[in-house]
User: What shape does this take?
Amino acid sequence: MGVSYKINVEKEKKEILNRYRTLLRNTKDKLSNSDKQTIRKAFNLALEAHKDDRRKSGEPFIYHPIEVGIIVAKEIGLGVNAITCALLHDVVEDTNVTLDEINDFFGEKICKIIDGLTKISDVFDKDVSVQAENFRKMLITISDDIRVILIKLADRLHNMRTLSSMPHDKQVKVASETMYLYAPLAHRLGLYNIKTELEDLSLKYTKPEGYRNIATQLSETKDERIKYINRFVNPIRKKLKEQNFKFTIKGRPKSIYSIHKKINKQGIDFEEVFDKFAVRIVVNSTVAMEKADCWKVYSIITDIYNPNPDRLRDWISTPRANGYESLHTTVMGPNGRWVEVQIRTERMDEIAEKGLAAHWKYKENNKIDSKLDEWINRIRDLLAQPEHDALDFVDNFKLNLYPDEIFVFTPKGDLKTLPINATPLDFAFEIHTEVGASCLGAKVNGKLVPLSYKLKSGDQVDVLTSKKQTPKEDWLNFVVTAKAKSKIKNALNEKKKFIAEEGKAILQRKFRHLKIKFNNQMLNELSSFLKIKDSLEMLYQTGLGEIDNKHLREFATARTGGIYGYLRSKFYYTPPKVEKTYIQQVNKSEKKYLVFGKNEERLEFNLARCCNPIQGDKVFGFVTVDRGIKVHRVDCPNALRLQSNFDYRIVEAKWVRKGRTDYKAILKIKGIDKLGLINDLTQVVSDALNINIQGINISGEDGIFEGDLVVVVKNKTHLNTLIQKIMTIEGIQSVNRIYKT
Assistant: This one.
């Protein structure tokens, strides 16, 4: 039964017109008559195409493309062509308008962008994430026009702003996907405001309780925060005026997501987050004086407040890979509170706000343009790789979105940007594929280091090569860049194919001797008989000499003997494809304490080891290919990836009764080391609460201890009682549940 809406047609017409006028007011430049006609033509086409369409909220659908256009114009700062595409971005996918018509009305350039934005529907196997294919298709257009990605981010931002009208499962799916891909992408393109809002909105739907708690506490402390910021900036403002600087000062709270991340990472409470807000000083300066002026402001601030030397970040001398420039320092403010201060010029601030769009405006800064070109070329290389699996592609793409960077140097002093934890091997592949493939070793700052050595900012790396060296499989265990991973995989696959060809020739000879036909069916039967995943792997192992005459004689005997049918049924079996409806029913003798789906069915399941859910945790089910349902906590480290890429295999899960008494939970305990601590701990756990301890590992240094406690509990309430009891032990500072050791 559909939802009925009370529609006020005249009111909606006025609202549509008001939003359209807002769009025109927010264009970055004064529009020519020709530009106005183009935007008006796009608006009229979208209005007509979507005239009968409504969003889940009941609003006219046309609100959405207009709002996307406003984001594109106001928050990203793009021009008339991008605004036109924003208005039209859904017409080909959702209406009868065709790409040919778009091409006729608006030209080839706009048609290509619309094509990149148009989703793919129902043409891929259900085991492949359609969204991953959409994402790949969108990125392919990066070779032609990067505005496709910018418009897509605007589209995603408006969808996130209006996500409240969607069903809960859809909210979690879209929010997870946004956190997994789109927020890192916005960061990589320098769109910090959009990135921050996407992260906060994603958190609102994936972890609503944590989001609400922080939002409430930020709201309750707002007045006090404003007073403190004013007290902090007043002496700075006075000094800057004395030095004749033209400037603005902005104080803002840290994002809810960043506070939530810090609370969870450090195992602290909201009150213990010392830098909940940042002060930004934006200086009016010429390009020639930018660097000097920013350092002068830094000097003035640190004359007033003591800086934390470990918290200085100079992204002016060495901008981030996405072009971000700023000086960041953390200083000790009044009442012993740390305050982060960001210092930048108006040009730097616009780049930080609008990312790529602002870069085009400041093209004279070649240092920034070259970094962006370098990144875009890296994406083009990734798209050119012979990688057919869309999900592998998305995972590789994510490696190119690294938020934390290090800066290392070649022997000649050239600067290279790499992700944190990069190794000399990543560096070698960054120089050139052939350098990476033939990398034998490396010297860092003149000293020989292993290829798995983790580089640090400022390191100078000299790669040692050999013509005899080839990529090794274990290299994949420590390289972190997408380029290195894909090049190593390609080299290994080529080597594997070459050896497999040799294996094929060997098998042909041996099959002839055993009087067995050599064809694809026989190869499949042999690989099934040997329990090898596919015939290519079997040919590869034959080429390596791992499949010998004994194996082949056994196969020949089995084929001709009476047990052949038995062997076929036992080994030559392909499990059914997993569809959304394929879930194995639970045995009636199993304990029934979890139900799945809207109909609350009782199904077979296992608890995921990656997050160790216990009764009372918020959980979801994930349908595996061959092991029934795996139950994960909603805050599992793998939850975002699963919900983003495999939403069709996610099922709702709910605890309905107490059934098990053997849930494993791991606690991270920190505090002040003292005599008898272990005894106090075991007394509380084992004696007072009668809880079984599976493992305990505590180490201390300089009067501080940290350790893991593995316990068996009945449910979450039982665990929370234990945590509260442990917190009463003298010297214990924090107790936090972790996923696994």
In short: The chain has 29 helices and 20 strands. The chain has six domains: 9-189, 214-362, 404-472, 490-571, 594-655, 663-738. Residues 286 and 489 are 48 Å apart (CA to CA). The radius of gyration is 30 Å.
